[in-house]
Amino acid sequence: MDVADLQAPLATLTPGEETYAAIRRSILDGTLTPGERIVEQQLAATLNVSRTPVREALLKLERENLVARIGRGMAVRRYSSDEVRDIYNLRAHLESFAARIAADRITDPELGALERIQDEMEHERFEPSHIESIRHLSRDNQRFHALVVRAARNAPLDRCFVQVFQLPLLYKAYIYFDEDRRRGSDRDHRKLIQLLRKRDAGGAEEHWRRHLRHGGDVLAQHLAAGEAGEF
Predict the structure, then answer these.
(1) How many CB atoms lie within 10 A of CB 118?
(2) Which of these, 169, 201, 178, lies nearest to 32 by C-alpha position?
(3) Could you state, in order of their start, the residue ranges of all structural domains in the chain?
(4) Class of domain 4-76
(5) What sign for the dihedral angle of Cα 214, 219, 224, 230?
(6) In this predicted model, what pLDDT tens digit does every residue of 111-124 receive, in sequence order?
(7) pLDDT at position 6
(8) Are 81 and 167 in contact (CB under 8 A)?
(9) How many Cα atoms within 13 Å fall on the side-chain side of residue 103?
(10) In this structure, what are the phi and psi dihedrals at residue 37, rounded to the nearest 5 degrees?
(11) Element (H, E) at 188
């Protein structure tokens, strides 16, 4: 499993599936933002399809908790700070368990791939106010996390991971990072690679759990501040 699998449409999609994949991708990459109202007619015109596949796609996305009903229409689902914290806590358990298993099962090529992804992240421009900068960093961060899970070679864990991974794609924690936090995150990634190379299962698990919980805390705190009207 790769992060691209969460977003990229397959080559053999039907027109209806293509419509669903396109709307889903727009939500996950931030083109459609949390809370933004979805206008069926506008989407249909943009995608050059009738309103029927758009409506069907939105119903499917509603079941995935990516959109929600707002009056008679729909909007991209907005998550509360409590929901964010709960989901990140679940991610912390899942991904730290994956890191523990991966310490025994990860291959040298996979370790090399993690290092290359991290190299790319550290060389990327970091500017929280620049949406493309945040998208690129978030994309590579997603690739890193997904590769750790894939290296565990545990199919049930893979399926659970995909289910809880959508939220971090919607809410990109890097928006709320300053340079110190960004560098701290980079150090965490480097340390995980070292622990995996040493086959330190317990160390990898505990380290990765702390990393995930910290990221969730940063995001939940900022969302809570917004809910309280502090910004």
Answers:
(1) 19
(2) 169
(3) 4-76, 81-227
(4) mainly alpha
(5) positive
(6) 999 999 999 999 98
(7) 47
(8) no
(9) 21
(10) -70, 140
(11) helix 179-197
Rounded to the nearest 5 degrees, what angle is found at the Cα of 58, between the Cα atoms of 52 and 60?
A: 105
CATH number of 81-227: 1.20.120.530
Q: What is the phi/psi pair of residue 107, to 5°?
A: -100, 165
Tokens 């421009």 belong to which residue?
125
Distances (CA, A) of 223 to 8, 19, 80, 194, 209: 28, 30, 7, 33, 21
Least confident piece of the model among 8-22, 90-104, 206-220 = 8-22
Q: Is 8 helix (H, G, I), strand (E, B) or coil?
A: coil
β-partners of residue 100 are: none
CA distance 80 to 13: 33
Chain mean position to CA 137: 11
So what's the pLDDT on residue 226?
A: 74
- N-term to C-term CA, the chain: 38
Tokens standing for 214? 């910290």
Helices (H), 12-130: 15-28, 40-47, 51-63, 81-105, 108-123
Please check whether the two domains, 4-76 and 81-227, share a CATH topology.
no
d(CA 90, CA 198): 26
